C-alpha cells in the first residue's frame, strides 16, 4: 500500500516538473510576471495639476471658439438631364493640378449633390462662400454649427473672383464672424482653416501664411491669393481662414495637388477682396468693373525683338482692338504696346485686367503706349466689363 502512494506521489511530482519546464520554455513571461507581482507591493504615479477652466499654453482654443460657430456646411443639389462628356485622365494624370475644395461628384447623368462650406458674416444671415460651390445649384441647404438645417437663397455671385453671397432667415442665428484686416496679415503668421472636409463635420487645421498677393495661379480671372500650408481638403471650399484672434482673413478656395488631397499649398481669397465683391453684390446685385475692349498679349523677349522695341521694354501687346469699343474710340490701334495705366506700369495681361477693372465704367483712364518708335499718351473712357456668366 505504501509503495502505491509513493509511486503516485512520484508521478505527480514528475508531471508538475514537466509542466513547469514547458511553461518556462514556451511562456517565460507567465513566471516572471508572477514573480514581479509578488516583488512590487505598490506603484506611485505623478499626475499633472490642472485647472479645467484654464487654456493650455500656446492653444488656439479661444480663436476657434470665437470663429467656429459662424462657419456653416453647404449642401447643394442639381438634377442633370443630359449626360456630359468626361475628360479621361491620360498618362499625365499624376501631374499636380489645382483642385477646388469640393466633395465627390456622382455621374453627370444622375441627380448630383456637392458639399462645401460658408461663413456667416452678418446678423442679417449673410453668408460668404465660393461661387463654384453654388453655381448651377437647384437647391441649397445650410447646416448650422448647432445642427439645424435651413434653406438658403442666392443673393449673387462673381465667377471672376469665385465669390458668392447667400442669405438665410433663421431665428437665434449663431454669432457672425469678425472680419479682419489684410494689412495686419504677414507672411509667417499662424492661421487656422475651418471647414467641412470630406463631409466628416467641422474641422480645424493650422499652418502659417506662406505668401501674400499670389497671382498667375490660373484659377480665377482676378487673383490676389493668400497662400497657406494649413491642411485643406475637399469640402473646405468657402470655409474660413482665420488668424489667432479668430478674425476672418480669407475664404478658402483651392489647393495645388496631384492626388486631390492637401499637399501644403492652399489658396484663400483675402478678406478685403471678398468684402469688396460682397458689398458690390449687396448694393448693386452684381460686380461692376471697368473694360476697354482689347485683346492683350504678354510681351515676351522674342516678341519684343520682332516688334523692334527697345531692350527691356515692359508692357502688354494689344494684338486686337474691339471695333467701336472704348479703346478704339480713344485712339488705340492693334499692335500698340501698353506700358502704363494712370501712371502705373503694366507688366503683364493679368495686371492690366486688374488695373482697368478697378477703374469704374464711365471714368477716364490715361494710357501710355508705344507705337512704332513713338511714345503716346491717350485718354480712354472705360466701359462696363461684360459678365462672363450668370447664376440661374
Features:
Thrombin, subunit H, Pdz3 Domain, seven-stranded antiparallel β-sheet, six-stranded antiparallel barrel, 31% strand, elongated
Question: What does this molecule look like?
Answer:
Helix content is 21%, strand content 31%. Helix 1 packs across helix 2. It has helices at 2-26, 28-39, 61-67, 131-134, 271-284, 301-306, 326-329, 349-357; strands spanning 71-78, 97-100, 112-120, 126-129, 139-143, 149-151, 153-158, 163-167, 190-195, 203-214, 225-228, 240-243, 248-257, 266-270, 290-291, 294-298, 316-321, 337-341, 344-345, 364-371, 374-381, 383-384. The chain has 392 residues and is of the alpha+beta class. A hairpin with a 4-residue loop joins strand 7 and strand 8.
* Spatial arrangement of strands, main beta sheet: 6-5-1-3-4-8-7
Return Rg in Å. 33 Å
The DSSP helix count reads 8
Distance between the termini: 106 Å
- The biggest beta sheet, please? 7 strands, antiparallel
Strand content: 25-35%
Strand runs, count: 22
- Unreliable residue runs: 81-96, 98-111
CATH class of the largest domain: Mainly Beta
User: H/E order of the elements?
Assistant: HHHEEEEHEEEEEEEEEEHEEHEHEEHEEE
Overall geometric form:
elongated
Instruction: Tell me the count of domains.
Output: 2
CATH topology of the largest domain: Thrombin, subunit H
Percent helix, as a range, is 10-25%
Average pLDDT across residues?
Answer: 80
Q: Which structural class do the helices and strands define?
A: alpha+beta
- CATH A-level architecture of the largest domain: Beta Barrel
Task: Offer a concise description of the structure.
Strand 3 and strand 4 form a beta hairpin. It is elongated, with a radius of gyration of 33 Å. The protein starts with a helix and ends in an 8-residue tail after the last strand.
